[in-house]
Amino acid sequence: MNQALLAIAILALVLNPAVAKTNPPQITWDWFNTAEVYKRYPRRTRADLLISAHYHRMAAERGNASSAYKLGEMYENGMGVSQDYQAALKWYLASADSGDKYGEFRVGFFYQKGLGVPQDMLMARYWYERSAQRNNEWAYHMLAFMFADGDGVEKNVSLARKYFELSLPRTNDHWAKWKLATLIEEGDPQRAKRLLRESASQGNTQAGELLRQKDW
Question: What is the pTM of this model?
Answer without folding.
Answer: 0.85
